[in-house]
Protein 1
Amino acid sequence: MKIIMLGAPGAGKGTQAKKIAEKYQIPHISTGDIFRANIKGGTELGMKAKTFMDQGMLVPDEITIGMLMDRIGHCINGYVLDGFPRTIPQAESLTKALAERGEKVDYAINVDVPDENIINRMSGRRACLGCGATYHITFNPPVKEGICDTCGQELVLRDDDKPETVKKRLDVYHQQTQPLIDYYKNAEVLAEVDGTQPMDAVFQGIVEILGE
Ligand code: ADP
Ligand code: ADP
Ligand code: ZN
């Protein structure tokens, strides 16, 4: 099962992708998590990516596409991609790489949330840079304030989740990523869920799409 998560920054792609990965036993691959792990590790890739991420811009396709292709190379049983593709050239590269192996994306799930809800979601998001877990101070708080339930590390407000940067990321989303909805509609694999519902209800909608 090869699944792509579409949606604005903060729509809940990561939250739902983790649930999908667990239920259907496929890897969750988040390009944002890969970049953040590289920044934390001080790699060259991380340093390149950081300058773009801090400004709310996309990391250039020539960096991102190669990195993602390396990561999915040996995942033959499928995966859920969270945060990739984000541009038409990224989507085309993925389609082409899969076609070369006689494969295709099975589902592109668009988690639909209007811009008005996004700023709130992002300012309340808390991230664990240790294990990639995400929380929300109101909607999904950790057991102990400021500490990751899973690995015990301190939670942070991501630099790019500050309101100024979120506005920029939303602009970038509308310009560069939203066109992917039509791209996958044309490919006849698009499914939509209402991302404004509570997390469990959104997941229920996704299970109805993917099957038990
Ligand atoms: P969110 O889940 O809030 O949308 P991500 O963790 O997916 O954020 O991404 C954080 C940042 O990492 C993006 O704003 C962008 O700078 C960079 N990034 C992640 N995925 C991609 C991608 N596919 N192409 C380009 N940049 C990306
Ligand atoms: P994305 O990966 O699309 O950027 P996240 O999954 O990280 O989004 O979710 C963004 C923030 O909103 C997080 O703090 C998360 O806990 C919270 N969140 C996710 N889904 C919902 C939901 N359905 N209702 C309320 N808050 C949510
Ligand atoms: Zn953690």
Protein 2
Amino acid sequence: MNIMLFGAPGAGKGTQAKFLIEKYGIPQISTGDILRAAIKAGTNMGLEAKRFMDEGKLVPDSTIIGIIKDRLAESDCKEGFILDGFPRTIPQAEALELLMKEMGISLDRVISLNVPDELIVGRITGRRVCPKCGASFHMEFNSPKVEGICDYCGDKLVQRKDDTAETVVSRLDAYHTQTAPLFDFYTERNVMSEVDGTKDVSDVKEDIFKILG
Ligand code: ADP
Ligand code: ADP
Ligand code: ZN
């Protein structure tokens, strides 16, 4: 099954991706996680991407498309994958479509997590993430079993550098101008399903499971 999770920054894509990995046994492909790993490794690509990420701007399409091309070619993607945070622009979606066509596969379902802007700032500023496995938690709405520790791998949780109230403004702006048009793109292709992302984490999970079956 090839799935894409769609929604504003902080809508809950990463959180839900972890449940889908457990249920379907397919990998999560988060371009944000891949970029952060490149920054940590100090690669040229990472250093270049960092400038955009710190300002809450999108990283150029050519960089992102290159990342995805390499990642989808890996053997663990054969049974399917969960795209999280990609595509984020129309050119990225078009490149993905072409790439998947070449691979003889297609997107089975796009799940839109609908969350209004007013709720996004609180979600992002209260987010704590695992630097090792990429899991995200929330200090108030989705706290880990042990304070400050990742439920999945036991690593110490941290706050992302770009998870500030100031950066959220430009990230939401990038979302509305560059990413939101993908809603119509995938609706036209009859693969779009919407869920109410304001519900509790476990209710959103159930709604997604119902759609995917
Ligand atoms: P995204 O991957 O879309 O950027 P995350 O999954 O990292 O979003 O979620 C953003 C923040 O909101 C995290 O702190 C997460 O724990 C929290 N969160 C996720 N889903 C919900 C929900 N349904 N209700 C409240 N908080 C949530
Ligand atoms: P969030 O879901 O909270 O926005 P991500 O981890 O998905 O966080 O993305 C963090 C940053 O990485 C984005 O603000 C952007 O700079 C960059 N990024 C991630 N994925 C993409 C993409 N598909 N296209 C362009 N930039 C991206
Ligand atoms: Zn972890």
